[in-house]
Structure formats: C-alpha cells, structure tokens
Amino acid sequence: AKAAGGNRFELADPEADARAITRHGLTTALPTALDRGEFFIEYQPLVHLGDGSVRGAEALVRWLHPQHGVLSPDRFIPLAEHTGLIVPLGRWVLEQSVRQAREWRDVNGGDALGPLRINVNLSPCQLTHPGLVQDTVEILERTGVAPDALCLEVTESALIGADDDLLKPLRRLAEMGVDIALDDFGTGYSNLANLRRLPVSVLKLDRSFTQSMQQFPADPVDLKIVEGIVSLAHSLDLAVTVEGVETGAQAEQLRILGCDTAQGWYYARPGPPERLHELALVDATG
Ligand code: C2E
Ligand code: CA
Ligand code: CA
Ligand code: CA
C-alpha cells in the first residue's frame, strides 16, 4: 500500500501487505486446487449429551496448500464464495462426506451402532444455486445413503429475511427427510417467532453461549437465555446442538439446561474419518 505523491499511505503496514499478497496468491491458486486434490475433510463427532454416545459428525473442509500447509476454512471459504468456487467445492464436500457416512455404516455392519449422521455446511451461495436439490438427491442416490442421515447446516445470518424463493430448496430437502440446522444460532438478529417459518429441525447454539458456561456458576442471565432458547426450540420440535464444548463443566451445565447434542474439543477435535469410527466403536463396546 504505497502511494505516489502525498503522504497518506506512507505508514505501510507490512503485515497487511503480507496478508494481501497471501490473499492474492490464494485467490490465484484456489480455482485449480480442487482439481489438484488439495482439499480434505476432517470430521468432528456430535455427541448425545444424555448418554455420551456418538451420533454423527460435522464435516469441516481444509486446504492442504503446497506452500502454506494446512489452511483453515476461515482463510479460503470467503475467497471461494467470492470467486464462485464454493459451488463445486461445496458439492465435492457434500459428496465426500455422504460417501464417508456410507462407509461408516458399512464398516459398522449396517446399523449395529445406530446410524452415524453426517452434518455438512452450506454456504449462502449454494442456497441460491439452482442445482442444490438435484445435486443432493443424486449424491444420496449414488451412495445409497438415506436422506435422514444427512443434516445441512445453514447459518442464521444466511436466512435472516429470507424470502420464499430462498427457502424453497430447503423446504424440498426437508420434505425429503434431510435435516436442516440453523448454524451459529443466537449471533444474528433473527426473530424467534420467525423460526416457525423456516424448514429447520435443529438449532446449533453458537459457541459464545458455551463460552459463557465456562465460569461456575455461569452468568445467571446467560443461563436464562439458553434455558429460554432450549424450551422454545423444544416446543417447536427442534433439537438443540451446542458447539465449542471444551470442558466437562460446560457439558454438564448444557445437559442440565436441556440441550440435546454437543460438539467440541472436550469430546474430540476434528480429525480423520477413521478416528470417528474408533470413537463410535469404543463408545458402543463400553
Ligand atoms: P462452524 O460451522 O461454526 O464450525 C465450527 C468451528 O468450530 C470449526 O472451525 C471447528 O473446528 C471449531 N471448533 C469445534 N470445536 C471447538 C471447540 O471446542 N472450541 C473452539 N474454540 N472451536 C471449536 P473450522 O473447522 O475452522 O471451521 C470454521 C468455519 O468454516 C465453520 O464454522 C464453517 O462456517 C466454515 N466451514 C467449514 N467447512 C465448510 C464447508 O465445507 N463449507 C462451507 N460453506 N463452510 C465450511
Ligand atoms: Ca457448522
Ligand atoms: Ca457453528
Ligand atoms: Ca461459526
């Protein structure tokens, strides 16, 4: 950031420059990264708070960049959304994850451990892409995975003020039996009454609520808020998942507050697919 003439930009920020260069480099490398097979997926278990059993996993994409090493999605998902790569990338993540769910099922010998469900994040760009429903149907058919083993996570902010056109594909998927989860719930400004209008069956309570359960006793106002959200969710027949659970104390508080499912480092960090199978197996055999 240097300007010819004037001294407005003289205070160059080397770190900002480095970031801009990296961003530029990433943007250039991104379109071909999918073809080069540089993306991979880690899976983080979703655990039932009542009995501690593993019920499924969330798929989280990573980019193994030849120069920069493993990049977290926060580094490249915004770029992928900006460049449009998110549509083929998102489709790839969906297909890989659903295949993985099929493999867990097969390795487990059918449903012996109960079906492991797979959660996949959807970007707002994928929601408005006309191929979403058909792609999803085809992937489920190709892999032989039942729609109710799949949960698509959409952020609360993507659905704020959503009109019927935007909701239509989600409704179709929900009618087929695919679960829709409202991700990062509680960070946006959505009207709680608005929830009735959305084809969602799961609320994923944002990590900030989990963080506020860190102190013991937790802030009484936070407790009331979570309690209120859980009771509203349950009265609307929605399940509540909490993310970012890092300690046993948080898990216990959230269990007492009535949350259904949890995810976080306390149980497991995101990891390779084999790891999930091990966790589920250990879980089932004691
Ligand atoms: P998210 O959907 O809210 O995913 C949860 C994030 O919290 C993940 O970060 C996960 O690794 C992290 N996390 C899990 N447990 C804990 C914990 O106990 N403590 C803390 N501090 N963090 C925890 P990650 O993997 O870096 O992903 C970041 C975001 O990138 C995701 O947030 C999601 O919005 C997006 N993302 C990831 N994969 C995909 C994808 O395939 N498609 C799209 N569109 N977005 C994706
Ligand atoms: Ca998510
Ligand atoms: Ca989330
Ligand atoms: Ca998030």
TrEMBL record:
<protein>
    <submittedName>
        <fullName>EAL domain-containing protein</fullName>
    </submittedName>
</protein>
<feature type="domain" description="EAL">
    <location>
        <begin position="23"/>
        <end position="284"/>
    </location>
</feature>
